[in-house]
Amino acid sequence: MPGWLACAALLLALAAAPAAWAGSPDAVVTQGRMQVLLPSRPAAGYFTLENRGDAPLTLVGASAPDCKSLMLHQSKNEGGIDRMVMVSSLPVSPHGTVRFAPGGYHLMCMQPSGALLTRTGTETVTLHFAGGGSVSAPFAIRGPRS
Amino acid sequence: MRRRAFIGLLAAALPLAAARAADQVWHDVDVTGTSPSLDFVMQGTPFGQTRTQFDYRGFVTMMYLGYTFCPDVCPLTMQNVAAALAKTGKAAKHIRFLFVTVDPNRDTIPVLKAYVAGFGPEFVGLRGTPDQLAALAKRFHLAYSVSPSSDPAKYEVTHSSAIYVFDRVGNARLLVPSMASQKPDIDGLAADLVRLTTERPEGWFGWLRSLV
Amino acid sequence: MNEPLSTAPAAIPAKFDPLLVMTGLVLAVGTVLWWGDAVHPAEMPVFAPWDFSWIEYLGIALPLLWYLRGLTLTPAAERPHGLRQTAFLAGVALIWVTLQTHFVYLSQHMFFLNRLQHMGMHHLGPFLIALAWPGETLARGMPAAGLRLARARPIGAMLRVVQNPVVAGLLFVGLIWFWLIPNVHFHAMISPVLYTTMNLSMVIDGLLFWFFILDPRPAPPARHSYAVRLVTCILVIFPQLLLGAHLTFAMTPLYSYYDLCGRLFPSVSALLDQHLGGVIVWIPSSMMSSVAFMLMLNNIRLHEDRQNGGNNNDDIEIAPGVRISSRAWTGR
Fold first, then answer.
1. Alpha-carbon distance values, B163 to B39, B77, C305 (Å)
2. What is the count of structural domains for chain C?
3. pLDDT tens digits along A29-53
4. Partner of C263 for a Cys bridge, out of A79, B93, B128, C286, CB 3.0 to 4.6 A?
5. Which of A73, A75, A81 sits opposite B143 (nearest CB)?
6. Nearest residue of chain B to residue A38 (CA atoms)
């Protein structure tokens, strides 16, 4: 099997299969993506988190090698004013799903660097849960218009 | 006989009138004649040149408050506006979107330029002094607040989420509810923008009103 | 400032008309406020105008000047009671706060604060001013031309119409209702011209109404009898109650303006904001009528005291030479 084919197969597998790599909790991260606007400005991370276990999970943080810090944030539009608030923890009920999507929950990546600045490829993001477990997944890196 | 003809005429006119009335409905909130005209002095992208409302005569102009440390809502708003612009076809070249930063301390012209460039050629960044910004927000009853902090994670900024739309002579015409909501009316905005670009100028009265 | 000012024209050559000098000062302060608002809006203090308006500024500053001047021109013994002076100053201050300070910004971004603003400019502020019954003092401090204008026949005729009990009552509640029609409210909040019109109409109507109601005199000098005024004052409660209850119990937000231009407090939802506003229309506004009612009863009592030969304080002559203290039976 030629090398490129293996590569393509791997990529396909990565894209198609729920990208849960490691981690103790029975959680699956899909549709991970990082939206990078400017090197000097925070980037936003979006994903869907599915709790496939029978126990409730509590998301308490996130990290990525190319973000100085990666925080859980929520955009709120309350009465016509936009604001952002930090989220310290977010429960995911058993067999429940939490969506981090534009205009709501998002990861805020302070001081993006490395691969993020190329606006191509993927970034490995790790989500941390209460109790010490974590899940890592590849997030596709995108620019403002994608 | 004459009476019947009259009724016939009326019957024919009714659907026409109804169609006309349906035509008159805007998708966004109509503020024609009540909201004040566009009026500002600020530095604009790309070079920091002084910009006023007169630079946007001839354009259908949208105005929105935001800031570049906003990684989620402001990009989402502008992505949705860009999607609406893409649906306006050729009209897009007569449309401009003014992104007015409420955080001029951190948002310098080069940063603004790079930020708005990501969304399309119709997007312009504007940076005013605190006084210029306050005057603009006051004129249009918009709200914003900045609570600075040395830690960028704690630096808090809030701003009104609406977009004002001005016609080609600078009169305020529409108020667009948040384009970062769950169901932004992208098609409606596109239709409204096209309608404004194809509108015939209002003549001397509209011009007079734009001066007020 | 008290006596010297009244004697000043004699001491200083006539060209230094103190009223002219003071009016010039008022104009100068106005110019500074106007300039500050236009050029340095971000640096203006909170008590300075949020949106400077010459009409509103002069409408507040000139009567204040005339009142203060009128006080200084009145012999100490004839001056209105200290409480009445305080009521006038408090009323004027309240109208200043609700029309020409940064409170306006807050009230443009929360419905319930907008209702509080209207309470201040339509109910409480004009109420306090009318309670002070400042006409005589104002007339003394006003320039002669202004006084002639105020006493001109057309003005009198107009006042007769708008202070007809039915018209006054209808105007009083009608204006509250009118500016709260959702579509009207939206455009009034968004248009600077309509906004000023709304606020001025509320202040002027408030003054007309409370001056009509709180006139301490009986019917011949006053336009209408105590009874008619008591009834008017009570009847206006009910439409306000209805409107307040309508807003308080409405289950859909009616005023989209605040959602479009932004509400200041994230913890107050559109509906809660509206409910709070409804409570303000409902309760304090009715309370104002009750307070007015009691004050009028007191006016009636004082008037009857006087008619019965009392010295206007607390005793009544029930028969020639026989006086009893009304304190004994009124409990005051």
1. 15, 9, 65
2. 1
3. 999 999 999 989 999 999 999 999 8
4. A79
5. A81
6. B115
Give the pLDDT confidence of A104-145 residue by residue, as tens digits. 999 999 999 988 988 888 999 999 999 888 999 999 999 887
Q: Is B159 annotated as a binding residue?
A: yes
First vs last Cα of chain A: how many Å apart? 33
Of B31, B135, B143, the CB nearest to C109: B143
Domain count, chain B: 1
CB atoms within 10 A of CB A4: 8
pLDDT tens digits for range C143-199: 988 898 888 888 888 988 888 899 999 999 999 999 999 999 999 999 999 999 999
How distant is the Cα of A128 from the closest Cα of chain C, in angstroms? Answer: 29
Low-confidence ranges of chain B (pLDDT < 70): 1-24, 201-207, 209-212
Give the closest of B111, B118, B161 to A81, CB-based. B161
Chain B residues closer than 8 Å to A103 by CB: 72-73, 76, 180-182
CA-based nearest residue in chain A for residue C266: A78
Q: How far is C260 from chain B (nearest CA, A)?
A: 6
Which residue of chain B is at minimal alpha-carbon distance from C189? B141
Tokens of A95: 């067999």
pLDDT tens string C234-247:
999 999 999 999 99
> What's the token pair of residue C131?
């309670």
We report the CATH number of the domain holding residue B41 as 3.40.30.10
Q: Which domain holds residue C53?
A: 3-330
**CATH number at A3-142:** 2.60.40.1890
Within 8 A of B159 by CB-CB distance, chain C residues are 262
Percent helix, strand, coil in chain A (nearest 5)? 10, 50, 40
Checking ipTM against 0.90, whether it exceeds it is: no
Question: ∠C163-C165-C170 over CA atoms, to 5°?
Answer: 90
What is the extent of the structural domain holding B207?
27-211
